[in-house]
Amino acid sequence: MLATLTAIAAALLAAVLLVATYYFQATRRISRDAEHAVPPRGRFVAVEGCDIHYVERGEGRPILFIHGLGGTLHHMRRPLMEQFGDGYRLIALDRPGSGYSTRPSRFDGRLSEQARLIAGFIDALALERPLLVGHSLGGAVALATTLLYPERIAGLALIAPLTQHEDKVAPEFRGLDIRSPLLRRIVSETLAVPTSVKMAAQTLDFVFGPQKPPHDYAVAGGAMAGLRPSHFYATSTDLVALRHDMPGIGTRYGEIGVPAGILFGSADRVLDHKRHGTGMEGRIEGLDIEIMEGVGHMPQYADTSRVVAFIRRIAERAFAA
After folding, report:
1. How are strands ordered across the β-sheet holding 43-47?
2. How far apart are CA 269 and CA 211, in angstroms?
3. What digits encode the pLDDT tens for the residues 271-306?
4. pTM of the entire structure?
């Protein structure tokens, strides 16, 4: 009997190792293809042990774009930065750990930590009080940076931002809610990337809906840059870390003294525009709130010119002040 159980256990272990090896090799192959299709296209600067990947264009007062959960700088680069026009220096970065930016294992993704790294990036590039444009989780990072380093920031233009703590993780994000760093690393190196490819259509429908993503979103739009184990690990880490700082930051919005605006789509499937958008009315003095009817979580793709006009409106207030 014992010999039989031992044989069964050995067979199960061998099967698990075989499956894990398959997914590990598939992850390596997909990652290589992704890096070949969408290589780093910007520069790197060292900030507190991180190599931050960023792109920039134009001249003038600086506008710094911060992408959201699971995104990369490409969410802000194309088409938003490309269609923005002249008059400003536009910079978009891969948040630490995302895309091609690195993040040491000692960093845990807390908003306060990300805010410190954004402040360090501003110092490294000698940016004179930029306007922060934050999308989704990038909005929460921008808010945290403004609260913790107010002297470095001229204003806030937030696109579909996360502004309130969420007690529950949405079903679409539960695969990212991995509390154990060890398990998170194992999933990152095996299941995560192949599963992301398999679920791509559903994920894009959730994030972009009711609109469709651009037809060239995978390569020209840079989406494949996220198909790497380090990117998944950072995305999961950022989601898990929200429970630390988000509740406290949400109680301090009255301290923000720079010009600020929020733009939301009324059909956003990721974040409730009433809770995270119009619910902010009166919490930041002079807050400019704009709602785009029928638009989902990616306004910068749905109506780029309107988003550009929104950012420019806030920029004029911020830099005049």
Report:
1. 43-47, 50-57, 88-93, 61-66, 131-135, 155-159, 260-265, 288-292
2. 11
3. 999 999 999 999 999 999 999 999 999 999 999 999
4. 0.94
